[in-house]
Structure formats: C-alpha cells, structure tokens
Known about the structure:
heterodimer; A: 296 residues; alpha+beta; Alpha-Beta Plaits; 2 domains; 4-stranded antiparallel β-sheet; 8 helices; rod-shaped; B: 255 residues; alpha/beta; Rossmann fold; 6-stranded mixed β-sheet; 10 strands; 30% helix; globular; binds adenosine-5'-triphosphate; binds magnesium ion
Amino acid sequence: MAKRRGDIPLGNDPASRLLPWIIGFMAFIAALALSGALVLAAFSDRWSAGLTGTLTIQIPPPAAYDDEAGFEALQKEALAAVRRTPGVASATLLPLDEMRALLKPWLGAGADPRDLPLPRLIAVTLEAGEDVDLADLGRRLEALAPGITIDDHGLWRERLTDFMAALQLAALAVVAVVALAAVVMVIFATRGGLLAHRESIELLHLIGAHDRYIAAQFQGQTLFAAIKGGIAGTGMAAGTVVLLGHGAAATGAVLPGALVLEPMAWLWVMTVPMALIVIAVLTARRTVVNALVRMV
Amino acid sequence: MIRFENVGMRYGAGPEVLRDISFELKPGSFHFLTGASGAGKSSLLRLMYLAHRPSRGLITILDEDIATIPRNRLPELRRKIGVVFQDFRLMSHLTCFENVALPLKINGAGSGVIKKYVSELLNWVGLADQANARPATLSGGQKQRAAIARAVISRPKLLVADEPTGNVDDALAVRLLFLFEELNRQGTTVLIATHNESLIRRFRHPVLHLEDGQLVPSPLRPIVPLRDRAPPPPDSRRFSDPIYPDAPGEGGRHG
Ligand SMILES: Nc1ncnc2c1ncn2[C@@H]1O[C@H](COP(=O)(O)OP(=O)(O)OP(=O)(O)O)[C@@H](O)[C@H]1O
Ligand SMILES: [Mg+2]
C-alpha cells in the first residue's frame, strides 16, 4: 500500500490502517445489496409487464364427460367471442397435447392424462396500451356457459410486486445501515487518530495552524482510505454480481429474463463508493473540527 | 508589547505554579528568564506562546488581550510567535528540512520560498548536511538547532526559547545567542529561559528571575531599564551572518 506523508503521521495508526478494509467491506455489502435491489426491480418489472399483457381464460370440463362434441363447439364459440373483443391482439387455444405434456411429470409415467377431465385454456395476448372491458367479456362468456373464468393474473401480480417491494426495502435498509456503520467507524478511527496524535496537533496549533489545516490532514487520510476501500469493495461486489448472473443463466431459463444489471443500474452501483467516500470525508472533517474546538 | 498583570497559573485543579506575575516586555527587547528547576520558567513561557490560559490576571501578547481574542484569530497571533520548546517537539516522521519548513508551509508559502529560506537557515545553524535526516538520527545539539531553526524561520515578532542552549557546547551556545540577537536587531522581542550563567554574564540583557512561581529580583543582575543597558559585545556581529540578506530591516531595539 502506498504511504501518504502528511504533517501528522496518520497512516501508521492501527485504526487508520484498518479503515480501508472496513470501508471495503462496507462498500462490498452495500454494492451487493443495491445490486440485488436493482436486479429485483428490473426482474419484477419485466415479470409484471409480461403478465400484464396477457389473460388466461379457463373453460371448465363439461360435467357430462362424453359430450365431446358440445365441449369442442363451446371452445370455438368462446375463442370467437374473445377474438371479437376490442383490444385483444391474439387468442389461442392451448393444444391438449401441450397441456398433457406439462402434466406428465406430475402424474407419473403410468397414468394417462387423457383419463383426466382437463379444462381448456385460451391464452390471450392484449394489444399494448388498450383497455379491455373484462367485465363485459366475462358476461358474454358466462352467457355461453357458466363457469368460464378470466384470470388476468392480478392477484398473482400484486403478491409478486408486494414481495419484490419488501425485498427491495430490505436491500435498501442494508445500504442505509452500512452508511450509518461507515459514519460510526470513521468517527472511531478519527477519534483514535486525534488521541494518538494529540502532541502533533498541539504543535501544529502552536505554530499557527488553523483547525481546517489540521482537519485537512485527517480528511486526506480518510479520503485515501475511502477511495482504496470503496473501489476495492465495489469491485468485488460487481464481480460477485456478474458471477451470480452467469450462475443464474446456467441453471436454465427458469426465470423470465436473466438476473443481470442493466447499464443504468451499474451507474447506480457506482454511486456506492462515491457516497461512501463523501460520507467518510465529511464525517472525518466534522469529528476533527468538533474535537479541535475543545483544544487550546 | 507583552504585558502580564497579576497573572496566576495552575495545571488542571493543581496548585498555582505561578503567582502574581507582573512584568512588561517592550517591543524589540531581549530578556533572559532564570530560576531553579521547577520554579515555573516553562510554565511562564507556555502562557506566552498561548499553550495555556492563566487562572487569573491579564495577559497581553503582541498587543492582543488573550482573554478576549476569538479562537479563530489565535493562529494569526501564534504565527507571530516563534517557540523553541525545552523538549524540541520535532516531528519524528518528518526530515530536519520538513520540520524547519513547517511554519512556512502552514503559512501557505510556496515550495520555492521554502527551499530558499530553509536551506539558508539550516546552513546557518550548521545542519545543511543533515537536511534529510530524521530527528531520531540527530544528536541532542542538532535537534536543538533544528528546533531553533523552526522557531525563527518565519521571522516571528516574539521569540520564546526554553533552554535553547541546554544541549550544545559553549561555542555553539554563543553562536546561537548571536542568531537570537540578530533576530532581535530586526525587531523581534526575545525571551530566553536558561540556566547558563556564563551566557547571562556574556550577553548583558536584563533578567527575569523566578523563584517558586514568583518573580523576584535576579541575584545575577537586577532588571535594568532598557535605556541604561550596555551595548552588545563588539564581537557579536562577526558571527551574525544575516539570515535574510534581502529582507528590509524592521527597526530593532536601537531604532
Ligand atoms: N503538565 C503539568 N502538569 C502539572 N504540573 C506541572 C506540569 N508541568 C509542570 N508542572 C509543575 O509546575 C511547576 C513548574 O514547572 P516548570 O516546568 O514550569 O518549571 P521550570 O522552571 O521550567 O523547570 P526546569 O528548569 O526543570 O525546566 C513544577 O512544580 C511542576 O511540577
Ligand atoms: Mg522548564
């Protein structure tokens, strides 16, 4: 590590030497938490947007199982009704084979999904920005056959966004706690330095140094420590995020969209070391000036 | 002007180590301060270089009443006071050169000016070849000379020296006294605490004598009025190389 040489040999204090490490850990945790919050935000936006543009319409299986022909006619009528609705971009009946294939792992190899009375699903894609009158559509479908339901994923979406918001809040709380912890650590380190260098500080005072001259020495030391620690810690966090993103991609596309940070989000993460540096330097300055006023 | 009126001083809640101190130092005067060990010389000097507040009495330093001067003006006043500490108080991590340069640096002097003045002065006190040495590697006398150089580098209006010749031989002590006299000729008020009786005899400046925290007439030499003082010995000028040859004289005690 490079040594700075000020009028006060602050670089040699145990507390000063630990400061870059401590700030490094803080930056690491804060940057990681912030990245998590940002990834979640983008993720929940994408997911929510993906769900917003779609509806699922469920036609329950006919009570009379053998009325296969009537059931198919009902499906066609329902599909036509949906397609006629303004604001609907496309509507397709989910093929029965596809549904059975989806069910197969749940039922085991032996069972034949064909034996099950499956409801039929119509996947609806809405035109972006169009408001669809769901109540009217519901009434029309109800008229075709009772029991047809429309799922606009609203409840699911609401729960998802609530959960994501809670996670983000937790992440931001971590960032706030780290900032507070940084303030406390810098106060401790600075007080340690003030105590260890009482004599040098008194000498500087006696030969005519202003408080701000002495404070500048501490600020310089803290700035140096914060730059080292902040950059190293944030760098480690960035590396971790990239690795986690690769890891998530390797597990397969279970999740809608990769867990990666967008360029704008990276900029936000970069504010972590800068904020830590500013917080650290201002805290050091305040601590020193407050202490010096009490000296001769 | 320096004036003490009925000044008392104590450390913390301890007893008064100085009592009823009253005296006045005219601008451009040169005084010795004597007294047995523990009589309070260093304590009196601490009051003069604003390291300590009196427990009572009035102190005026360079025409400033130190009881009322706001804290933010103390640095300006302190820059006019050069101090040679009894224990030197050199910064151990700085070189001899950097230590001497410190007052100029604090004053915001440029590196060119610093280099010129510090080199000249180190030369004068015979420390030119120790410029890059750390205090730990200097002898007692070398440290003392570095401390003196730092005290006089910014040409203070008041020079306060605590045993500045305690660690040097008589020849060097005399030489350092010439340095102080040269500064004094340029207008600096000088007060030197010393035990060295031969110096006091040789340099015929008035003496403030402390006994057990109080000023009493000196057994060596009673305080003589400034005007009646004998001129400095004729050989003093031979050694007093001008420290700042290009500096305009500021009117010394004779002016
Ligand atoms: N920091 C301090 N705290 C408490 N008492 C002190 C302190 N410094 C000095 N004293 C006391 O003040 C008195 C005067 O001490 P001072 O250092 O002024 O004497 P001095 O004349 O300079 O002695 P010396 O010639 O040995 O340097 C002494 O009784 C000493 O014990
Ligand atoms: Mg003393």
